[in-house]
From TrEMBL:
Pfam families, per the entry: ADH_N (PF08240)
Organism (species): Ophiobolus disseminans
SUPFAM superfamilies in the cross-refs: GroES-like, NAD(P)-binding Rossmann-fold domains
Biased composition annotated in UniProt, kind: Polar residues: 451-460
Keyword line: Membrane, Oxidoreductase, Transmembrane, Transmembrane helix
PANTHER family membership: HYPOTHETICAL OXIDOREDUCTASE (EUROFUNG) (PTHR45348), ZINC BINDING OXIDOREDUCTASE, PUTATIVE-RELATED (PTHR45348:SF7)
InterPro entries membership: ADH-like_N, ER, GroES-like_sf, NAD(P)-bd_dom_sf, Trans-enoyl_RdTase-like
Binding partners and assembly: Monomer.
Official protein name in the record: Enoyl reductase (ER) domain-containing protein
Length: 588
């Protein structure tokens, strides 16, 4: 099979043919249909931690083709079931294979089933960022989750805050929650999860967020429904947050970027005993801050895989509690995406695995937002942020180009997988959203850090080689409807063609009727009043019909062949059966 393999010395990745993996007793063999490219993927190719020969990549979606012998029957997994998940591809020192390949193996309980309403392209961009947001909102900060998991085990491993440690009890029924980088993919999921927590707990949540003003209209709509938004470019935005909260501050703050000054600024908005979660560690060097009112809770999304994660200089320990949470979250996710949780919209990129490095890595860069310097005219190579404008707005990032308007219904900053063939034209398409959901979009760009976390940034999904192309149209709920004018125009053309065909058929039948031989009426050469039209038998009639293409009507004097030549006396005598003397007299 083909896979995207790390070349640590050259700091790149290349497609190579490797052996088909064999699933362990508790694993599934999955045929990959779509992959999602997160900023963490190019980061650890350009700055490798893994060794040469390791398969890179994290997010995937596909279908089951093999089941290990110890996968329990209670899992109800069958071949051809559509599943999604993520692996830790080249993002740590641990030598575990990634997801950017035609086939992969994964523990059976670390995948979630894709609902029929969600395409494989959309599903590929869900797993890593959705679990990142769930970890931050639910088990790190302790907001009530809409599913059961072992909260005490999380607390014993010091992975999150105890609910009693927060000040939200001072105002029963009201909780102030801040999400920094609200319009990133993680931010979009975090907002929805905060709303679900309010529904589960019965408490009112006031949702505060940071984003560019051009995104505000989108973020204030359902399902995010932000109560207050500030522009992160404003130097005094933390003070604006405090003013909007009437001086109360934030009970919970989630920094979905955790880069530069963001951690210190977010921490400054906290109320007494407020809680804060971040997505990058201090050890990784993405942020440096001292004199924080609290020490934020940190954890890598890879904790959910239940394996130790090693970086240069520090280690994220193996966490059974984090794995148990991930398993419970995936069970809930399989149902929630049909009703409660809206996936982040996706942008398709053509080219399959061959274009991951050339286009996908170039688009995302290998560092912070400032590293994204690629400028190309292809619309799938637009900066991720240009898809995040309010409906009908022209994004400022496009000011140096011909203005192009985008609508959140059909665009978003997640770039999702396409299964086009290598030989297909150099085109790409934007997936429309399922009609079950309202229009949706996404948001500000966030950048990766050297800590190995991809949580704060939007996934980009890139198409898979033709061997993985799905031909099951039932798995494509997002097919764009055909406009009514296009349907009307097509029907009009079809009707016109049918009418033309009928007209040609009638003309041909009329011509055929004219070509039937009719014997001419001859004047009697013997000066009698009798009709001298000779009789003609059926055999002679068929002969004449075969040899004549045009015959004059009764009363005429000529018979013409298909070439327009006169039939001579002998021919007329042979056809009509007249005596030669009568013919000569008639002609004279």
């Amino acid at each position: 099979m083909n896979a995207l393999i790390l070349d640590a010395e050259a700091r790149t990745a290349n497609i190579k043919e490797i052996a088909l993996p064999q699933p362990a007793a508790d694993e599934l063999l999955v045929k990959v249909e779509s992959i999602s490219l997160n900023p963490i993927d190019p980061l650890y190719v350009v700055h490798p931690l893994g060794k040469t020969g390791r398969t890179v990549g994290s997010d995937f979606a596909g279908h089951v083709v093999g089941i290990g012998s110890q996968v329990p029957e209670s899992a109800s997994l069958q071949r051809s079931d559509r599943v999604a998940g993520f692996l830790q591809g080249a993002c740590s020192i641990n030598e575990r294979p990634g997801a950017f390949s035609e086939y992969l193996t994964i523990p059976w309980d670390l995948v979630w089933r894709i609902p029929d309403i969600v395409s494989s392209d959309e599903a590929a961009g869900v797993s890593l960022v959705a679990l990142t947001a769930a970890q931050g909102i639910w088990y790190r900060m302790g907001l009530l989750a809409p599913f059961e998991y072992d909260r005490e085990a999380v607390l014993k491993e010091n992975l999150g805050w105890r609910q009693s440690d927060s000040s939200d009890g001072d105002e029963p029924g009201t909780i102030n929650v801040l999400i920094y980088s609200a319009s990133t993919s993680v931010g979009l999921y975090a907002a929805q999860m905060a709303r679900l927590s309010a529904k589960a707990s019965g408490k009112k949540i006031k949702l505060f967020g940071t984003a560019s003003k051009i995104r505000w209209e989108f973020l204030k709509a359902e399902p995010y429904a932000y109560d207050h938004l500030v522009d992160y470019r404003d130097k005094d935005w933390p003070q604006q947050i405090k003013t909007m909260s009437e001086g109360a501050g934030m009970n919970y703050a989630y920094d979905g970027l955790s880069e530069g000054e963001s951690v210190a600024r977010v921490a400054s908005t906290l109320a007494d005993n407020g809680k804060m979660a971040i997505v990058r560690s201090r050890e990784g060097g993405a942020w440096k801050a001292s004199d924080l009112p609290i020490e934020p809770t940190y954890g890598a999304v890879w904790e959910g895989l239940g394996e130790e994660v090693q970086y240069e200089g520090f280690t994220v320990r193996k966490s059974p509690a984090a794995r148990e949470f991930a398993v419970a979250f995936y069970k809930w996710l399989s149902k929630a995406l049909s009703s409660e949780l809206r996936p982040v919209p996706i942008r398709l990129m053509p080219g399959g695995l061959e274009k991951v490095v050339e286009d996908g890595f170039a688009l995302l860069g290998a560092g912070g937002v400032g590293h994204r310097q690629v400028k190309r005219e292809k619309h799938w190579m637009r900066p991720p942020s240009v898809d995040l404008c309010n409906p009908g707005a022209t994004c400022p990032e496009e000011k140096d180009r011909t203005p192009t308007r985008y609508t959140p219904t059909f665009t978003a900053r997640t770039i999702a997988a396409t299964t086009r063939s290598r030989d297909s034209e150099d085109t790409s398409e934007i997936l429309p959203v399922p009609t079950l959901w309202p229009s949706r979009s996404s948001s500000d760009t966030a950048s990766p850090s050297s800590t190995g976390n991809a949580q704060s940034t939007t996934p980009i999904t890139v198409g898979h080689p033709p061997i993985t192309t799905s031909t099951n149209e039932s798995h494509k709920p997002n097919s764009r409807p055909i406009p009514i004018p296009a349907i009307s125009g097509s029907m009009g053309g079809i009707i016109a063609l049918i009418a033309l065909g009928v007209l040609l058929l009638l003309c041909r039948r009329r011509q055929q009727r004219k070509n039937i031989y009719q014997a001419p009426i001859y004047v009697s050469p013997y000066n009698t009043d009798s009709d001298m039209t000779p009789p003609i038998n059926s055999f002679q009639q068929r002969k004449v019909q075969q040899s004549c293409s045009e015959v004059h009507q009764p009363g005429g004097r000529e018979i013409r062949t298909g070439l327009g030549r006169r039939i001579g006396t002998l021919s007329l005598q042979r056809i009509a059966g007249l005596p030669a003397e009568a013919v000569d007299r008639w002609r004279s």
